[in-house]
Automatic annotation (TrEMBL):
Transmembrane segments: none annotated. Residues 26-230 form the Histidine kinase domain. The keyword Transferase applies. The keyword Phosphoprotein applies. It is an enzyme of class 2 (transferase). This is histidine kinase. Its EC number is 2.7.13.3. It comes from Rhodothermus marinus (Rhodothermus obamensis). Keywords: ATP-binding, Kinase, Nucleotide-binding, Phosphoprotein, Transferase, Two-component regulatory system.
């Protein structure tokens, strides 16, 4: 399936995205101040609570603010300008760092399928690429059963490297057409900007991110393709 395209003229689409990004930045800044206040007052209140039930309620407040913090982090990622600092990095190291970003029980569900040498050198902004792959993996993990396996497949293509994230299931066509629209989501606890952020990161690298497979039998596959020039540019240090 090809990537979702916009019917807006390019200038209008860019302006719309800029407005959304600015709004996200303002919201993240203002809400973070409120969350900090709530956490501070709850912490003070906890010391005065007498019963386990009351302390349990306070703990739920902390858990709720932690969820809001994660949403604010996504908003900040969406709002930030993306200017990749491209350097050479060992693919093996980048993937190890990626798995560390996941919770232990989540990392255990990710199966790596390297159809390329782990000693391969990749040219990218490592932090941005890790974040894009992290968001793809989180999306797949949240969309499947807790005991299911999500596959991260890495392949070499002529002048590019292809990352595929596979999971079981499929999406109705009307949902598949909107998955890259900012703030569109079918999940109550999801803000709906993970996939748009991942696509922006891919495009900032002159690459692509699209829904490659959506089939009840084969499952769902998102493909992130990054162009690669020479493995090591002149004067560019290899980051191991």
């Amino acid at each position: 399936m090809s990537a979702v395209t916009s019917d807006k003229p390019p200038l209008l689409a860019d302006t719309h995205d800029a407005v959304l990004a600015n709004m996200a930045q303002v919201l993240a800044h203002r809400l973070r101040s409120l969350i900090t206040s709530i956490e501070g007052f709850t912490d003070l209140l906890t010391d005065t609570l007498a019963t386990p039930e009351q302390r349990e309620l306070a703990l739920r407040v902390f858990e709720s603010t932690a969820s809001i913090e994660r949403i604010l982090l996504e908003l900040q990622w969406y709002a930030r300008p993306l200017q990749p600092m491209v350097q050479s990095r060992l693919l093996r190291v980048l993937l190890q760092e990626l798995l560390v970003m996941l919770e232990a029980h989540e990392a255990a569900r990710v199966a790596l399928d390297l159809r390329i040498s782990g000693g391969k050198i990749i040219r990218a902004d490592a932090m941005l690429l890790r974040q894009a792959l992290f968001m793809l993996l989180k999306n797949a993990l949240e969309a499947t059963r807790p005991d299911s396996v999500v596959q991260l497949r890495v392949l070499a293509e002529p002048c590019s490297i292809r990352f595929e994230v596979w999971n079981e299931g499929w999406m109705p066509q009307e949902i598949a057409e909107k998955i890259f629209v900012p703030f569109f989501t079918t999940k109550a606890q999801n803000l709906g900007i993970g996939l748009p952020i991942a696509r922006r990161i891919a495009e900032a690298h002159k690459g692509t991110l699209y829904l490659a497979t959506n089939d009840p039998q084969a499952g769902i596959c998102f493909a992130l393709v990054l162009p690669q020039g020479e493995e090591k540019a002149n004067g560019d240090a290899l980051l191991a």
